């Protein structure tokens, strides 16, 4: 019997997936930033979201 595909349990909770529609000029700018940093657009968005949270709720950042 073939084994099931998928992730091995790592003990860490899975990341949540989110979908957002962005204006073309915003997405283009994100692509430029990602290219310059040699990372993915998703990485740039995650980094921006974390920075936003840390700026808006600094006490929350301390508890992480």
Proportion in helices: 55-70%
The number of E-state strands comes to 0
> What number is the mean pLDDT?
87
Radius of gyration: 17 Å
Q: What characteristic shape results from the CA principal axes? A: extended
What does the main sheet amount to?
none
What is the structural class? mainly alpha
User: What pattern of helices and strands is seen along the backbone?
Assistant: HHH
Helix count from the secondary structure assignment: 3
Into which percentage range does the β-strand content fall?
Answer: under 5%
Point out poorly predicted stretches: none
Calculate the terminal CA-CA distance, rounded to whole Å. Answer: 43 Å
Quickly describe the structure.
This protein is mainly α.
What features would you describe in this structure?
- InterPro entries: CopG (IPR002145).
- Helices cover 56% and strands 0% of the residues.
- It is extended and about 40 Å long.
- The protein has a domain at 24-63.
- By secondary structure, the chain is mainly α.
- It contains three helices and no strands.
- The protein starts with 23 loop residues before the first helix and ends with a helix.
- The model has no long low-confidence stretch (mean pLDDT 87).
């Amino acid at each position: 019997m073939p084994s099931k595909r998928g992730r091995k349990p790592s003990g860490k909770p899975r990341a949540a997936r989110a979908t957002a529609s962005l204006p073309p000029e915003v997405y283009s700018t994100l692509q430029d930033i990602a290219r310059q940093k040699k990372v993915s657009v998703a990485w740039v968005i995650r980094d921006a979201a974390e920075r936003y949270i840390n700026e808006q709720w600094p006490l929350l950042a301390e508890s992480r």
